[in-house]
């Protein structure tokens, strides 16, 4: 039972840490982020396993983590509040070519991120060509261009 409680505690802790970190950093992993993720994985595995490195304990941990994920998915289906907290909601960060800086600061997104998405998705060069830019739940930026006249 101790193994299950350790797994639940670490799962909830990591969920909270990654929720606080925000969705944008997770969408754009670089080499540093990958190394950090591997170190975190190794660190928490030792905390979950304790002194028992048996196959049975490993299977119990995997089962616990999968059940936690299924349980949270079930809760998200039943509760919009839980879904919003766990997955967040899309966030408009540019409207009619104007940066919504307070939202961008909160989401840790900058002008270059928006312009990169605008270039990649529509070949836009300038912020004035952007009707809306939306930071999606997964951390990507969707751009809706201004309608061209003519």
UniProtKB/TrEMBL annotation:
Annotated YetF C-terminal domain residues: 78-148
Subcellular location: Cell membrane
Record-annotated YetF-like N-terminal transmembrane domain positions: 8-70
Membrane topology annotation: Multi-pass membrane protein
KW Nucleus (keyword) present: no
Main location: membrane
InterPro entries tied to this protein: DUF421, UPF0702_alpha/beta_dom_sf, YetF_N
Transmembrane portions of the chain: 6-22, 55-75
Keyword line: Cell membrane, Membrane, Transmembrane, Transmembrane helix
Highest taxon above the source species: Bacteria
Family per record: Belongs to the UPF0702 family.
Name this polypeptide is given: DUF421 domain-containing protein
């Amino acid at each position: 039972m101790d193994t299950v409680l350790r797994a639940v505690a670490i799962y909830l802790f990591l969920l909270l840490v990654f929720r606080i970190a925000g969705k944008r950093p997770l969408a754009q992993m670089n080499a540093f982020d990958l190394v950090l993720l591997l170190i975190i994985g190794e660190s928490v595995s030792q905390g979950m396993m304790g002194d028992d490195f048996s196959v049975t304990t490993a299977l119990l941990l995997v089962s616990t983590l999968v059940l936690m994920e299924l349980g949270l998915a079930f809760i998200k289906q039943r509760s919009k509040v839980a879904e919003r907290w766990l997955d967040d909601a899309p966030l408009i960060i540019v409207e009619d070519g104007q940066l919504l800086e307070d939202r961008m600061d909160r989401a840790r997104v900058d002008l270059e991120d928006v312009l990169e998405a605008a270039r990649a998705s529509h070949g836009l060069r300038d912020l004035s060509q952007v009707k809306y830019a939306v930071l999606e739940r997964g951390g990507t930026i969707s751009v809706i261009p201004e309608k061209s006249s003519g």
